[in-house]
Amino acid sequence: MGSSFSLTSKKDLWRSLLFSALLLFSAPSKTWADPLTILVGTFSFDQFIPTDGSVAGTNAFNIINYTGDNAVLDPNAIANFLFSDLTLTLVDEHNIEESIAIEGNLGPGSLLDPLTPPFPSDPLFILQRPDFVRFTSARLIGTVSPEAFVLPDGRLFTAGPSSFDALLLPSAGDWLMPFDIVALELHGDAEVEVAPVPEPASLLLIGTGLSASWIWRRRKSQAPR
Hints:
Blueprint: H1 7-25, E1 30-48, E2 58-65, E3 82-92, E4 97-102, E5 111-112, E6 128-130, E7 135-145, E8 148-150, E9 156-159, E10 164-168, E11 181-194, H2 200-222
Antiparallel strand pairs: 1-2, 1-11, 2-5, 2-6, 3-4, 3-7, 7-10, 8-9, 9-11
Helix pairs in contact: 1-2
C-alpha cells in the first residue's frame, strides 16, 4: 500500500507552513493605551491676617506649576507644560458660587501667589478675597500643553481632553483653612508596545499543516517497503 500524499502535495504543505510562519513573525508589533496620571502642580488655599492691623486680612488661592526642571512631584512631568484656560469656581458658606477666568499662561516653576507684595495693585489680585469670607469649596480647571510628549521610559504620553480638574475641599471643619491643598493631576494614556499575537486564522493554518505533516509521515512509515 503506497502513500496517498504526492510529491506535489508535500511541496504545497511546506509552502503553506512557510507562508504561515512569515505571516506570524512579520506582523508588526501592536500598541495599547495604558492609563497614567501625572502630577503637574498644586492648588491651595492660604490666608494672611496681619497682627498689627496695617492692612486688611486676605484669603488667597495659589496655583503652582511643577513641571519641566521643577518636576518635584512626579518624575514623569518632564515636559515644560503651560497651564492655560484656567477657571476658578468658588462656593462660599452661603452657597453663593462665583467663577473667575484667569487670563494668560502659567509656565514651569511659576507661582500664582496673590500674597506676594505688592498688593492689591498686583495683577493677580483677582485670586484674593477678604479674610472674613469663608469658602466651602474651590474648583480649578484648565488645559495643559503640550498634550503629547515622551516619558522618561520612552513611552508616548497623550493627555486627555479635559487636562486637569481639581476640587479643593476643607481638610477639617466646614470651610477652607490655610494649607488646604490638592494636587493638579494630568490624566492620559501611555502607549505600551506588545509583541505580535498570532491571528486565529494563522494558528489554524499552522495547526492544519502540522497535522497533515504528521499524517503523511505516519503513512509513509507504514507503507510496505
